[in-house]
Amino acid sequence: MMKTTIQLVVLSGALAVTSLAVAETGKGYDINTVGEPQVMSDGTIVREAGTDSIWFMEGQPEGFPSIVKARCTAIYVMGPDYSNKGSTFRCTATDADGDGYVNVGSITGADWSVCSFKTVAGWGKYAGAAVSGVCQPTGSFAGPDTGSFYWRGEWV
After folding, report:
1. 3-class DSSP state of 86
2. How far apart are the first and last CA of the chain?
3. Angle 146-13-58 from CA coordinates, rounded to 5°
4. Could you tell me the pLDDT band of residue 61, with boundaries at 50, 70 and 90?
5. What are all long-range contacts of 67-73, with beta carbons under 8 Å and residues at least 24 apart?
6. Has residue 104 got a pLDDT over 80?
7. Local structure of 30: helix, strand or coil
8. DSSP 3-state assignment of 124?
9. Residue 52 has pLDDT above 50, yes or no
10. How far apart are the C-alpha atoms of 35 and 50, rounded to whole Å?
11. What pLDDT is recorded for position 13?
């Protein structure tokens, strides 16, 4: 049986005190730290995963870093062919100053498309974040327990 590790971690930034919309793009890389797939009696595969990630961003407003680290958890629900049946994730990102934010999201497309996220909490320079965007897993970058992804979001 082919073992496929599908991981997703998503990210956006947050601008605390402005009404200007700022576009952001990014690429993230993660390493799976926990989670073995469980096969249900109907063949559905459920994997609870945790990842440690590093995120690289472009389009940050002045004073916001272009690199943050994140810890994410996800529940992936997949068909026997590893097609997505509905998956969710939560990521806590922290910058070098100790400021950070929490994103939540979901992936609804069977082909791992239709991925979206939003920021639900922030502290420090990210307090008051109102962020949302779209994301896409892009596969392993260094073996079966690694993953990569990209996103487009808007800080408002």
Report:
1. coil
2. 45
3. 75
4. confident
5. 67/95, 68/11, 68/93, 68/94, 68/95, 68/100, 69/93, 69/94, 70/9, 70/11, 70/28, 70/30, 70/94, 72/9, 72/30, 73/48, 73/49
6. yes
7. strand
8. helix
9. yes
10. 7
11. 32
Segment 118-141, tens digit of pLDDT: 999 999 999 987 788 999 888 888
Q: How far apart are CA 41 and CA 110, in angstroms?
A: 20
Nearest Cα residue to 29 out of 51, 53, 12? 53
Total residue count of the chain as it appears in this document:
156
- Rounded CA gap, 136 and 64, in Å? 23
Of 97, 83, 89, the C-alpha closest to 127 is 97
Both structure tokens of 25: 């793009």
Tell which residue, 53, 84, 69, has the closest CA to residue 146: 53
For residue range 71-95, what is the model confidence (pLDDT) as tens digits? 999 999 999 999 999 999 999 999 9
Q: What's the mean per-residue pLDDT of the chain? A: 84
**CA 133/CA 12 separation, integer angstroms:** 7
